[in-house]
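Ticket #254: bound-state structure for NDP.
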Amino acid sequence: MTSNQKIALITGGSRGLGKEMALRVAQKGLDVIITYLSKADEAQEVVQQVEAMGQKAAALQLNVGESNSFDAFFAQLSTILKGHFNTDKIDFLVNNAGIGVHASFAETTEEQFDTLLNIHFKGAFFMAQKALPLLNDGGGIINISTGLARFSFPGYAAYASMKGAVETLTKYQAKELGARGIRVNVVAPGAIETDFGGGAVRDNEALNAMVAGTTALGRVGLPEDIGGVVAFLCSDDARWINAQRIEVSGGMML
Ligand code: NDP
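RESOLUTION: The complex was predicted; output attached.
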């Protein structure tokens, strides 16, 4: 089964940045499969919004922190691809799903460390590895990192270290997958107003003002600032961009 219609799989597409990515990718004419952890209703709303734009869409449940569930997930994905999208391959994987844990280096527990490791690094590593048989040659992987891997704010030692690992992984993936024409890039958002980390960047006025004050463009980021960049990377216009870290932060902490 082959099809010219491109499909993007976006983890954590029910809310926040992933939702915006799904909508902007659909605007570019791709079909979209999103995953969610627990918010099935929100995920279905995103599916309906994508369908209203004339593209096919589906939502699947997935915990990216449980890599032992990935084989079952990809088996389910194969079934959905054949049944709903009339193909057996996807073109892009966006490793976006994630959580924030705020803890100083001194106070980070092993449990917090393992949770962040499993979701942000092991999850991204094995999602991509296990996606390889389903990924079309000429497609791409986009790993979502953070500005915090370039600059440091107290309280993000473990979180940002996992994202730093993902950035290194990206280069190795680009090197090894280039033979298949698969491009692998990082998008590193600055602080964005979403539910992430309890919605602190959005709801904590002092934090919001501090971020705006350290950003050249003078405000905090919005989900709409990120989605279009991921959509661009899923387009042919980005065909020569490979192994790059694109920070999308309005010029934060220059
Ligand atoms: P949100 O909290 O708004 O959304 C998180 C999304 O990830 C939801 O779709 C959620 O599903 C899903 N999710 C959470 N945990 C898991 C899990 N264990 N397995 C699978 N899915 C999960 O976060 P953002 O949109 O802000 O963040 C998205 C990505 O962007 C993350 O990787 C984050 O690290 C990164 N980032 C965010 C920044 C920010 O300031 N917001 C800045 C830089 C990077 P459900 O809705 O079902 O709960």
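RESOLUTION NOTES: Residues 11-18, 36-39, 42, 62-65, 96-99, 119, 144, 146, 189, 191-192, 194-196, 201 surround NDP (CB under 6 Å).
TICKET STATUS: resolved
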